[in-house]
Amino acid sequence: MSNNGSRLAVGAPNNYGYTGHMRVYQYNSGSGQWSVMGRDLDGDVAGGNAGRSVTISGDGSRVTIELHLVVPAPPRTQRAVC
User: Fold this and answer.
1) Cα–Cα nearest to 2, from 63, 53, 48, 45
2) How far apart are CA 35 and CA 8, in angstroms?
3) What pTM did the predictor assign?
4) Whose CA is closest to 25, among 3, 45, 52, 6?
């Protein structure tokens, strides 16, 4: 949540086949309602669980979404010296 409480970043790591996403909300003090701000930030890797960890800056102008996925290392080629 931003310092003044008017913006909120919410992660949903289990959405979309565990690719996950984050959504930012803006509070309207006149109506007392929260509304979605912009578009969702979606993960693009199945099992990546994007949105498990999200942050928003104090002034609410910047957000981050973290991707939690362990990708196995590619197989290594071993060469013999002759």
Assistant:
1) 63
2) 10
3) 0.74
4) 6
